[in-house]
Amino acid sequence: MFSGVYTALITPFKNGKVDFDAFSKLIESQCEKGIDGIVPCGTTGESSTLLREEHEEIIRFCVKKVKNRIKVIAGAGSNFTDEAIYFTQFAKSVGCDGVLLVSPYYNKPTQKGVYLHFKTIADSIDIPVLLYNIAGRTSVNIEPMTIAKLFKDCKNIVGVKEASGSLSQMAYIKSLVPDIELISGDDMLTLPLLSIGGAGVISVLSNIVPEEIVYLVRAFKKENIKEAIRIYYKLLPLIKVMFIETNPIPIKTAASLMGICESSLRLPMCSMEDINKIALKRVLKNFNLIKC
Fold first, then answer.
1. Number of domains composing the chain
2. Does the global pTM surpass 0.70?
3. Is residue 188 one of the residues assigned to a domain?
4. Which residues are known to be catalytic?
5. pLDDT band at 291 (very low <50, low <70, confident <90, very high)
6. What is the pairing mode between strands 4-8 and 13-14?
């Protein structure tokens, strides 16, 4: 259902507001470059600093802009179950193809609490659901057995965006639930995850080089493994520099240097340190993404 390449969209800002002109151009570029879908209002989109009205406006705008050319998976997670239900039902009402639900952050629920959180949301709606496991941000891992139980008990939970950093955990999930759509949430692990049966990636890097990520994943799926490996190692310096500081600081700075949008972030996210920006510019120049 959600195999392939999906872009975890940045949210362009200008003068403190969402820059929908830049956002429109970014989405159009994604459609033209062969991306399978977009994921607005996720971590990369600075969802934690969006007002509810902005969140809704962004999701509605994305659905209207793509006009069914590609899929839209709305970030709809929250550490408050009722709020996640609200955003999930909103996503359904405006025509999204699915929702991405991050595990509850800050609360530090038990695995029972994690299970009940996701099951309550999934039971409230019939839209397809992707779980999002990123313990580095939320402090709580969605354990493989919990994922397996949710997949069994909730027919609309179809997959998981795995950003735990543990390939062994990803393999264990796939062994427990062979039919689950296991999606990389880390550009560094896209190729390794594909090699153990992964379905694709929700990519940060594809904000600026969508065609390269698409080419990598499609080469692998066509069993052109050597070419997929070649592209992976070619992209490695770019992948690494995108996480030289906390996401989305580097990717948004890169997008600004490439003229895609302004580099404006919302506090507590702040501008990139000068020494790291120099390193970022060097890599972008080596990839011919900027001229100076």
1. 1
2. yes
3. yes
4. 132, 161
5. confident
6. unpaired
